[in-house]
Amino acid sequence: MVESESLPLDTIFHALGDATRRAMLDDLSEGPRTVGDLAAPHAMSLAAASKHVRVLEAAGLLRREVAWRTHTCHLNAGALLAAHEWLDRYRAFWTGRLDRLEEILRQEDAAGPHPKKGNAS
Predict the structure, then answer these.
(1) b/e string for 26-36 if b means 16 or more Cβ within 10 A?
(2) Residues 6 or more apart in contact with residue 83 via CB below 8 angstroms
(3) pLDDT of residue 6
(4) What is the reported pTM?
(5) What residues are paired with 70 via a beta bridge?
(6) pLDDT at residue 7, rounded to an integer
(7) Which pLDDT value is given to residue 3?
(8) Domain assignment present for 54
(9) Domain for residue 92, yes or no?
(10) Which of 26, 33, 81, 101 fits 37 for a cystine, CB–CB 3.0-4.6 Å?
C-alpha cells in the first residue's frame, strides 16, 4: 500500500517543491490562466513556463485546455487532498505531543517554584 500511494505523493510534493510552481497554483486559485499569464510575473520564457506547467499537470494539480495556440490552465485542487491527508497524520502526532507538553508544564506550574541549584549557602 505504501508504494502505491508514494508515487502520486512524490509527484505532488516534487511539484510543490518549487516556489514558481506554488506561485502559479496561487494564481490559478483565482481562476483560469493562460501559460503566458502564468509566466508573466516570473519574467520567464513561455518555454520555461510550459515546463513548470507540465510538472504541475503530471502531478494532477492542474488541467490544461488547448484551443488553437492558446493553452489555458485550470487548478485541480482535489489533487492536493492526498498530500493534505498525508500531512494530517503528522498534524495529529504533533498536536498530541504538544497537548502532552502543555499538561506537563501545567503540572509543574501547579507544583510551585523549584529550588535553585548551585549555591546552597
Answers:
(1) ebbeeeebbbe
(2) 9, 12, 13, 16
(3) 63
(4) 0.71
(5) 67
(6) 63
(7) 47
(8) yes
(9) no
(10) 33
Q: Has residue 118 been placed in a domain?
A: no
Whole-angstrom distance, CA of residue 5 vs CA of residue 86: 10
Cα(28)–Cα(77) distance, rounded to whole angstroms? 10
In a domain, 8, yes or no: yes
CATH of the domain at 62: 1.10.10.10
Q: 57 — phi, psi (to 5°)?
A: -65, -40
Beta strands in 11-121 (DSSP E): 33-34, 62-67, 70-75
73, 32 contact by CB (below 8 A): yes
Phi, psi of 28 (to 5 degrees): -70, -20
